[in-house]
Amino acid sequence: SAVISQKPSRDICQRGTSLTIQCQVDSQVTMMFWYRQQPGQSLTLIATANQGSEATYESGFVIDKFPISRPNLTFSTLTVSNMSPEDSSIYLCSVKPGTDRETQYFGPGTRLLVL
Amino acid sequence: GDSVTQMEGPVTLSEEAFLTINCTYTATGYPSLFWYVQYPGEGLQLLLKATKADDKGSNKGFEATYRKETTSFHLEKGSVQVSDSAVYFCALSWDQKLVFGQGTRLTINP
User: Fold this and answer.
1) For residue B54, is it left (φ>0), alpha (ψ between -120 and 50) or beta?
2) Residue among B109, B110, B102 at smallest CA distance from B9
3) What pLDDT shows up at residue B101?
4) Nearest to B44 among A1, A48, A92 (CB)
5) Nearest to B88 by CA among B1, B18, B20, B31
6) CA pair distance A108, A23, nearest whole angstrom
7) pLDDT class of A101 with cuts at 50, 70, 90
8) CB of B81 within 8 Å of any CB in chain A?
């Protein structure tokens, strides 16, 4: 498995502003993922972030709205840009350790409320 | 595309009751299957998994068997506790990604 931390754990933001969420892993991993969980809903994959390449975004998510950085094998950031109340969600990062090709392990999530 | 369908919640049981949460999937290949649990205010934790047909995943008294013939991965526990109250997500792994069901909220009353 892997130990994953996220910062901030929660935030309240004003519409029109941006928030950058950090994800730190205790070991080097090739594949990192960012998910969104809207209130009372399931998880939706935003993008896959591999070190050394551009993030791959899922349908309905664009880089201008959710820019992602992946500077090394233990760290990634997701920015939620020009926020609106509809962006209020839990944002979770996950990793796939090299020892297990199938299983993803999740961070504790960042709870975002946009007013 | 691949998809996961879970039993609709919420589910409310008394302590020591038997639990089943149904999960069925649609997939073109042979995915790995997972159950994740989300306790109140927390992220997702891996509960159990199975990687091929007839595998049984188990953890913390929970079990699920990968049934290819019925494309199912139902979660069961023989005697639930108040501490099992959480949201449970069934998921499959496809093309390096996880596809989640809608989640089932479980409440256990003392």
Assistant:
1) left
2) B102
3) 94
4) A92
5) B20
6) 10
7) confident
8) no
| Residue whose tokens read 């999530």 | A109
Mean of pLDDT over chain A = 93
With contacts defined as CB-CB under 8 Å, which chain B residues touch A103?
32, 34, 46, 49, 93
Calpha distance A73→A20 (Å, rounded):
18
The tens-digit pLDDT sequence of chain B (110 residues) is 789 999 888 999 999 999 999 999 999 888 999 999 999 888 899 999 999 999 999 999 999 999 999 999 999 999 999 999 999 999 999 777 899 999 999 999 99
Q: Which helix or strand (DSSP H or E) is residue A113 part of?
A: strand A110-114
How many beta-carbon pairs under 8 angstroms link A with B?
45
Q: Are A85 and A23 in contact (CB under 8 A)?
A: no
Amino acid code (one letter) for A78: L
Between the alpha carbon of residue B75 and those of residues B17, B40, B89, the distances in Å are 14, 19, 10
Token couple for A115: 């007013």
The pair of structure tokens assigned to A88 is 């209020």
